[in-house]
C-alpha cells in the first residue's frame, strides 16, 4: 500500500488540524486491461470538503498512475454514498456496475476455511 496525505499546513493560513485528507492505494493487474491503480480508501474531512483538496489528491493519483504505466484506476463506492458517487462521476469516473454489469463478491472466513479443507 501507498498513502498520499494532505496536511492542513498547506493552506495559506495554516491550521493545527494536521492531516485533513488521504488516499490509500496500491497497484494490481487485470488480464483484460493490464496494470491499474486500485484506490483502496479516499477521504477528506467534512469541514475541508469543497476546498479542492480531493481534486488535488485525484490529480496526484492520476499522475502516479500514468507514471506507473497504469491503464486506469479502480475503486469501490457503497451504493448509499450518493455524494461520493456524484463527485467521482463529475470527475469522469464510470460506474462499472451499471455500464459493464460487474458485481462485487466476497468469500467470508468461514467459506474460505470450507474451501481450503475441501468441505
Strand content: 25-35%
Tally of helical runs: 4
Overall geometry = globular
Q: Roughly what percent helix?
A: 25-40%
CATH architecture of the largest domain: 3-Layer(aba) Sandwich
Family: Belongs to the acetyltransferase family.
Protein name: N-acetyltransferase domain-containing protein
GO molecular function, one term: diamine N-acetyltransferase activity
Pfam family, one: Acetyltransf_1
Please characterize this protein's 3D structure.
Strand 2 (19-30) and strand 3 (34-44) form a beta hairpin. The protein has helices spanning 53-67, 82-90, 96-99, 109-116, and strands at 2-7, 19-30, 34-44, 72-74. By secondary structure, it is α+β, with helices and mostly antiparallel strands. The protein folds into 2 domains: 1-75, Aminopeptidase, CATH 3.40.630.30; 78-118, no CATH class. A 4-stranded mixed β-sheet has the order 1-2-3-4, with helices on one face.
Task: List key phrases describing it.
4-stranded mixed sheet, Aminopeptidase, alpha+beta, acyltransferase, 119 residues
Question: Any chance you could write out the topology, listing elements then pairs?
Answer:
Elements: E1 2-7, E2 19-30, E3 34-44, H1 53-67, E4 72-74, H2 82-90, H3 96-99, H4 109-116
Parallel strand pairs: 3-4
Antiparallel strand pairs: 1-2, 2-3
Brief synopsis:
The protein is 30% helix and 27% strand. It is built from 4 helices and 4 strands; from the N terminus they run E-E-E-H-E-H-H-H.
Amino acid at each position: 500500500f501507498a498513502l498520499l496525505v494532505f496536511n492542513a499546513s498547506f493552506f495559506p493560513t495554516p491550521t493545527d488540524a494536521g492531516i485533513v485528507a488521504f488516499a490509500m492505494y496500491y497497484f494490481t493487474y487485470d488480464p483484460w486491461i493490464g496494470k491499474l491503480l486500485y484506490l483502496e480508501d479516499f477521504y477528506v474531512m467534512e469541514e475541508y470538503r469543497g476546498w479542492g483538496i480531493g481534486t488535488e489528491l485525484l490529480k496526484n493519483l492520476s499522475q502516479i498512475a500514468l507514471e506507473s504505466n497504469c491503464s486506469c484506476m479502480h475503486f469501490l463506492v457503497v451504493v448509499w454514498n450518493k455524494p461520493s458517487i456524484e463527485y467521482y462521476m463529475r470527475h469522469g469516473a464510470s460506474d462499472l456496475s451499471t455500464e459493464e454489469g460487474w458485481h462485487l463478491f466476497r468469500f467470508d472466513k468461514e467459506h474460505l476455511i470450507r474451501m481450503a479443507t475441501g468441505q
